[in-house]
Amino acid sequence: MSTTTSSPLLINDYQPPARSVWRTLRNSFAHRGFAIGAVLLLIILFGALFAPWLAPYDPYTQDVMLRMKPPVWMANGTWDYVLGTDKLGRDYLSRLLYGARISLFIGFSAALISGVIGTIMGLLAG
């Protein structure tokens, strides 16, 4: 009598099928929260990158004669200053676009620096 023995399939031998990057991205966009966050991040990145061309005015120029202009959707609001002006007469839209550049730079720099420090500490720890 002959018996055939085969090696049992071990859990460690299992490899899930490879998934493409596009399939993973498509599945991620199926979730509403991810899609909304990704679109908002892209809009902010676009506005920050193209701020010099999108901003209607210089964000640092002060004009006291234009102070406290209301936004366009309020009474007496004009399309000249879509988001209005502050108490020094600076355009809010221009300041928002240029401020996004600084905020994104600080956020990405903090993530990069913490990643580098964590990697170095992980390598030193073994």
Automatic annotation (TrEMBL):
Organism: Pseudomonas amygdali pv. mori
Keywords assigned: Membrane, Transmembrane, Transmembrane helix, Transport
Bilayer topology term: Multi-pass membrane protein
Record-annotated membrane-spanning stretches: 33-55, 102-125
PANTHER family recorded: OLIGOPEPTIDE TRANSPORT SYSTEM PERMEASE PROTEIN APPC, PEPTIDE ABC TRANSPORTER PERMEASE PROTEIN
Name this polypeptide is given: Peptide ABC transporter permease
GO CC, alphabetical: plasma membrane
Superkingdom, taxonomy of origin: Bacteria
